[in-house]
Design goal:
Cofactor: Zn(2+)
Number of domains: 2
Low-confidence stretches: 283-287
Order of helices and strands: HEEEEEEEEHHHHHHEEH
GO molecular function: 8-oxo-7,8-dihydroguanine DNA N-glycosylase activity; class I DNA-(apurinic or apyrimidinic site) endonuclease activity; damaged DNA binding; zinc ion binding
Mean pLDDT: 94
Number of helices: 8
Distance between the termini: 31 Å
Shape: elongated
Radius of gyration: 20 Å
Pfam families: Fapy_DNA_glyco, H2TH, zf-FPG_IleRS
Strand order of the largest sheet: 1-6-7-5
Structural class: alpha+beta
Helix content: 25-40%
Number of strands: 10
Oligomer: single chain
Keywords: DNA damage, DNA repair, DNA-binding, Glycosidase, Hydrolase, Lyase, Metal-binding, Multifunctional enzyme, Zinc, Zinc-finger
CATH class of the largest domain: Alpha Beta
Family: Belongs to the FPG family.
Length: 287
Amino acid sequence: MPELPEVSGLVGFLDERIVGRAIVGVELASIAVLKTFDPSPQALVGLVVDAVSRHGKWIALETSGGLSLVFHLSRAGWLRWSDALPTTVLRPGKSPIALRVRFDDGSGFDLTEAGTQKRLAVHIVRDVVDVPGIAKLGIDPLSPEFTREAFGQLVASRRMQIKGLLRDQNEIAGVGNAYSDEVLHVAKLSPFALTSSLEPGQIDTLYDALITTLTNAVDAAAGKPAKDLKDAKRAGMRVHGRTGEACPVCGDVIREVSFADRSLQYCATCQTGGKPLADRRMSKLLK
């Protein structure tokens, strides 16, 4: 799933290419991805893109006509850019393409989705806060408002596993499964540690790890073509997605805990005092 750094990279990529361009076509190949019915997709035709913005993991194309095309790529969605889009008309159900947007210079992009779980979401709205997922977003961790004091108050107000807090979009916008693993590894904290158990010094460390990890990842994504952002994300991971490899800090093997629809990765030596965590999918405690 694209998270804050990759979404930021996509926003920068689109900003350079479509701001000032008129939308000349919107083709819907999967009705399931469209979560609004009024305005219709055709209402965007003829409008000029004024800005491209990020809201957590959401991307918004804001137009001169007061309408915004807002989308969330979710778990298996992606944006595929073309300097010269094919002229053929999309056929529903015949490809991974869910939505195509054309611009007045012949360029455009497809929103695609792989796999069987269809969660790609597209909204056409008059105000981005009309999107329920955006209206409920918590604080952006790279915003000026996200201070150490604000983070400390957030941690103190919740009694939950720290990984869950980092991933909760209603609390902190933009961090998902991958970067929460990375942040916790940098902070040397167990993903199962409770927020109520953290000492002030650990909160300091976690705050610094969160800001540094995201800032570095955003910088790494900046300027990259859309097609390269997925590979860049994978290449930059220290522990996430690296089960069985050596920890880059201590050399211990990177371990995994699997759930029904996701998994997390961590280093026992760096994060849990050398004790492996229970793999709940296997219903056993590793010793």
